[in-house]
Amino acid sequence: MxxxxxxxxxxxxxxxxxxGATAAYxxxxxxxxxxxxxxxxxxxxxxxxxxVLAIPAFLVTLVTGVWxxxxxxxxxxxxxxxxxxAIFAVILVVGFTVWGPVVRRELAALSRGGMADAEYxxxxxxxxxxxxxxxxxxVVIFALMVAKPR
Length: 150
Fold this sequence. Notes:
By secondary structure, the chain is mostly helical. The chain has helices at 3-32, 39-71, 79-113, 120-147. It is 84% helix and 0% strand. It starts with a helix and ends with a helix.
């Protein structure tokens, strides 16, 4: 098996893990809202899992994608690569500068007063928008990588 094929396999698996984990986190938190006693634990668990599973897979996707692009001598100014990298960068920046702080404040609100805390509903809406936006952005990247439009 060639190194190139290994890179492609790792790239595809890491991409699937990233999208699957992000979608699963959204579902887990929505289900936990039906059992408020478990909500803070679920969000904290999702956050830990994100750090050890989804974020590393996301970064592996970037590294292997760039490596494959260089290995195949594909210009980075191709529409599908340029846009995928741009969307990737937005996800990365928003994840660390917006989503992370929102989740930390969400957990703080839950520890103060649970779902009844006045700040929690607003933070949950922000987190949900970020979750759905990230899932949509990842699906767009998947579509660009598969379709490779000119």
